[in-house]
């Protein structure tokens, strides 16, 4: 009797609407799975078209091309003798569903639509899909002719059913269903399903991976069983990085772990597991067995196939392993670096340009690019032919083999220190030293001539010359003069990005990198259309606190000693005149709050859903040892004034790597007005009344 079933799951770097590339990666994953003896292969959510198609799901072309790819998979000899489970959108009775299509030997066994749709944060699945609300119900799905010609089937089962092979029973979940309070695996497990599958499109957030792992392991800890999770990986066309972490769990313990961050486009996990271990584990859980005796059964699709072999007594099975989690600093080093690599190779640009100020934020961005170069060299060393082919296209050299991250940096990374009369020699030296240590092509330039020309035009037209406040000017004049410097830097950044390689006799252009962190964006502590305006921003979803820890990580792991002086210097915009040759302006003094306070405000505003009054109520308890209620009230009011005055800047925020759940990204994650009544009169009066009562 067969008892050792061999299954495979994968993490694929799919790209929205890249049907050709997506098909090739699916085929590669199936080939790898079969070569390792797998009898069942699971892929990520919507892997055929790519998860991030967004409003392209409305287009009939997306459905058509998905079926064309499915036909290629069905008719290929490569998919024979293995149950293949792929994801794609399907239109059933004029309703669009997010589906799994499960097939074997040119026959579709089941189309299983998603039951619980993800519709919070970055997810908008209810915009494009409808959940399947008919529990344990199956209907006939009439196949399009392109599929009928391959399978010989006119209709196939469509709905909430499970597969019964000759040796076990499998049931599917799709991404969000694992996170739902009434996950299908609970009832399926009680009904005798032994293998649960989950195809995900789950993106990276700092410190999130352990939650996903815990959910998978707990799914089988209480109920017994085998849980197989597949996930997308990489940047498939927007702000998110899908972070892999494919895994296989059995009876509450992980038996196979995939990488969270990798430049491998295709990663396959295969495990051989003893099905009798599931049965013996369940046998002694009396509460489970009592509940199982009353469960409403699922429709079963009978499959004349086994996941095990008849003579498998001597086949070795997988044993539990300890999951290794990355530290937040490692996540920052790896996640944004992989995202940048995908963006660079898929945009077909020749590298990056970064305005490097010598401060923490731009230095952290530079370190992420350096980490990317490190990952590229490591992948090539480990035999990754895809990465080698991509890097050769980027540097326009068919014989190039990257071995040293610093040498690769020199080819694809340009840093630029844009000095003004308000810049200190200290920041200039810090930027130059860091550029030397990471190997970037570094440019020093001075913007004073351009600033004077712009202000000169204004003076010529108006007859008035604005002055900094230290020279007797008003706040309006002071801010305008700072903004002119900041905006000129953006213009110069794009000019140098377009033409720097031309001056070096090299083809192509550079992507401009921004370096505003999540806290500055939330507070609006940036000039609209300054150097925060760029093509992409790898740190836009990361807090100042985490960036400081990341800088320390880079000192220790990359031996970038130049970062020590950057770490110890107070953050400054260097837009106001120096005093005795030294910087007098600091970020926290300008903002009227510390970066640590900003992180707290951000988490309360977004994650805790706190308006001004609720934030005040929470903070008088949190800060009772350091602030009086009146001081807390003053801080909360100042934050909400500044946040609301500057919210309009979020509408033009550079697309940023999503890493924090309190991101103020206005595109789809944090939907708010950008024209507020900034007096918050009613809300602030409620705070004042509470202060007086206290």
Automatic annotation (TrEMBL):
Enzymatic class: ligase
CDD domains: GAT_Gln-NAD-synth, NAD_synthase
InterPro entries hit by this protein: C-N_Hydrolase, C-N_Hydrolase_sf, Gln-dep_NAD_synthase, NAD/GMP_synthase, NAD_synthase, Rossmann-like_a/b/a_fold
PROSITE patterns according to UniProt: CN_HYDROLASE
HAMAP family to which the protein is assigned, alphabetical: NadE_glutamine_dep
Annotated family: In the C-terminal section; belongs to the NAD synthetase family.
The protein's assembly and partners: Homohexamer.
Protein name: Glutamine-dependent NAD(+) synthetase
Organism of provenance: Mesembrinibis cayennensis
Gene: Nadsyn1
């Amino acid at each position: 009797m067969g008892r050792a079933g061999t299954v495979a799951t994968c993490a694929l770097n799919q790209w929205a609407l890249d049907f050709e590339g997506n098909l090739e990666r699916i085929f590669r994953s199936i080939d790898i799975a079969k070569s390792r003896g797998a009898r069942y292969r699971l892929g990520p959510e919507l892997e055929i078209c790519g998860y991030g198609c967004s409003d392209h799901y409305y287009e009939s072309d997306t459905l058509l091309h998905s079926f064309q790819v499915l036909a290629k998979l069905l008719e290929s000899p490569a998919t024979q003798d293995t149950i293949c489970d792929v994801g794609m959108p399907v239109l059933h009775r004029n309703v669009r569903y997010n589906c799994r299509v499960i097939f074997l030997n040119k026959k579709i066994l089941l189309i299983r639509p998603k039951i619980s749709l993800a519709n919070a944060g970055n997810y908008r699945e209810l915009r494009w899909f409808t959940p399947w609300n008919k529990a344990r119900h199956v209907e006939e799905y009439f196949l399009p002719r392109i599929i009928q010609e391959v399978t010989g089937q006119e209709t196939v089962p469509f709905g909430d059913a499970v597969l019964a092979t000759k040796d076990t029973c499998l049931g599917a979940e799709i991404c969000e269903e694992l996170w739902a309070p009434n996950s299908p695996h609970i009832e399926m497990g009680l009904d005798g399903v032994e293998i649960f599958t989950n195809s995900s499109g789950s993106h990276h957030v700092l410190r999130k991976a352990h939650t996903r792992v815990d959910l998978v392991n707990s799914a089988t800890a209480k109920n017994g069983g085998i849980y197989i999770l597949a996930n997308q990986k990489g940047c498939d066309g927007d702000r998110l990085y899908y972070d892999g972490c494919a895994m296989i769990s059995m009876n509450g313990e992980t038996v196979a772990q995939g990488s969270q961050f990798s430049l491998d486009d295709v990663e396959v996990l295969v495990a051989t597991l003893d099905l009798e271990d599931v049965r013996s584990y369940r046998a002694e859980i009396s509460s489970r067995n009592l509940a199982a005796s009353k469960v409403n059964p699922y429709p079963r699709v009978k499959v004349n196939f086994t996941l095990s072999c008849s003579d498998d007594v001597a086949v070795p099975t997988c044993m539990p392993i300890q999951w290794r989690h990355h530290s937040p600093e490692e996540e920052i080093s790896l996640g944004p670096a992989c995202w940048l690599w995908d963006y660079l190779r898929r945009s077909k640009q020749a590298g990056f340009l970064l305005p490097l100020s010598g401060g923490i934020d731009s230095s952290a961005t530079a370190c992420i690019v350096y980490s990317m170069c490190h990952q590229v060299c490591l992948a090539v060393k480990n035999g990754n032919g895809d990465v080698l082919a991509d890097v050769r296209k980027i540097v326009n050299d068919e014989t190039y083999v990257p071995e040293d991250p610093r040498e690769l940096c020199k080819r694809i990374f340009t840093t630029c220190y844009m000095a003004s009369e308000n810049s200190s020699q200290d920041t200039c030296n810090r930027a130059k030293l860091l550029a030397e240590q990471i190997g970037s092509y570094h440019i020093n330039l001075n913007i004073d001539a351009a600033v004077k020309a712009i202000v000169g035009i204004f003076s010529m037209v108006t007859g008035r010359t604005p002055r900094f406040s230290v020279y007797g000017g008003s706040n309006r004049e002071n801010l305008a003069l700072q903004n002119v410097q900041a905006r000129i830097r953006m213009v110069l950044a794009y000019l140098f990005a377009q033409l720097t390689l031309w001056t070096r006799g090299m083809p192509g252009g550079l992507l401009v990198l921004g370096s505003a962190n999540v806290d500055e964006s939330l507070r609006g502590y940036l000039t609209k259309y300054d150097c925060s305006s760029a093509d992409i921003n790898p740190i836009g979803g990361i807090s100042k606190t985490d960036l400081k820890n990341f800088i320390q990580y880079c000192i220790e792991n990359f031996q970038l000693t130049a970062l020590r002086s950057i770490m110890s210097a107070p953050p400054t915009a260097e837009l106001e005149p120096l005093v005795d040759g030294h910087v007098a302006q600091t970020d926290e003094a300008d903002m009227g709050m510390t970066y640590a306070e900003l992180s707290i405000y951000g988490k309360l505003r977004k994650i805790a859903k706190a308006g001004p009054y609720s934030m005040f109520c929470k903070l008088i308890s949190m800060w009772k040892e350091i602030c009086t209620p009146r001081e807390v009230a003053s801080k909360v009011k100042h934050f909400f004034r500044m946040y609301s005055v500057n919210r309009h800047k979020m509408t033009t925020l550079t697309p940023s790597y999503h890493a924090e759940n309190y991101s103020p990204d206005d595109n789809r994650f944090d939907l708010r007005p950008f024209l507020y009544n900034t007096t918050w009169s009613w809300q602030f009066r409620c705070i004042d009344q509470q202060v007086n009562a206290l």
